[in-house]
Design brief:
By secondary structure, the chain is mostly helical. Helices cover about 80% and strands about 0% of the residues. It contains eleven helices and no strands. Helix 5 packs antiparallel against helix 10. The N and C termini lie far apart (about 55 Å).
């Protein structure tokens, strides 16, 4: 990726986060990126094209994260795959914090672009998470559960720090994209998985003995 294109992407994500998509002009993005307005037209056509690029680029990276966890079902337990997905998602968001905040907020809005996102990327996301959870239930690693509700809970916890960064910093006094927070938060999510999703170890042992 060229330096100019990268600067435009960073500037757009920052301005969309602070002023909103509608409140940001192409000229403001160019000024923030310190590039000519013509560069935005060259790479993205217009502001809508730039937003579409931001959303699709971020979500392609995110889907590749969850896909890696799904593929590992062939070699690892469902619990390990779920924890892999959680950890890699949190670090992916941390490494792309401005973009994560911008895209996650846009997904909450109703637009033609977001409807397309929901029918492509989010459908894939649902398939991968659902497959991991169903595999865990089938292998008696996970409790029987209502999978849509489990996905809602999981996604809520994964996205909350980047959907509400102002609340995180001003109310909870937590810096959501710091290494320390991410490390500790991943541990808390692992604890949630063990307590809420997984079958207790003693029950797993009894079930395994009974199956024999």
């Amino acid at each position: 990726m060229s330096k100019t294109k990268e600067k435009v992407i960073d500037a757009a994500a920052f301005l969309f986060n602070t002023k909103g998509f509608d409140g940001t002009s192409v000229r403001e993005i160019a000024k923030k990126a310190n590039v000519n307005v013509a560069n935005i037209s060259y790479y993205f056509d217009n502001k809508a094209g730039l937003l579409e690029y931001l959303v699709s680029t971020y979500l392609e990276g995110y889907i590749s994260v969850i896909e890696r966890a799904y593929v590992e079902l062939e070699r690892r337990s469902a619990r390990e795959c779920l924890l892999m997905f959680i950890k890699e998602t949190m670090y992916y968001q941390k490494e792309n914090s401005q973009l994560a905040r911008c895209v996650l907020r846009e997904i909450t809005l109703d637009s033609v672009l977001i409807r397309e996102v929901l029918t492509t990327y989010m459908t894939k996301e649902k398939f991968y998470i659902k497959s991991i959870l169903e595999t865990g239930i089938h292998q008696q690693e996970f409790r029987k559960m209502l999978i849509p509700q489990a996905i809602m809970q999981l996604k809520g916890m994964l996205t909350m720090p980047y959907l509400h960064p102002q609340y995180m910093s001003e109310v909870l006094h937590v810096i959501h994209n710091e290494d320390y927070f991410t490390e500790q938060y991943v541990k808390e999510l692992e604890r949630w998985v063990n307590m809420t999703i997984c079958v207790p170890l003693e029950n797993s042992y009894i079930q395994a003995r009974t199956a024999k």
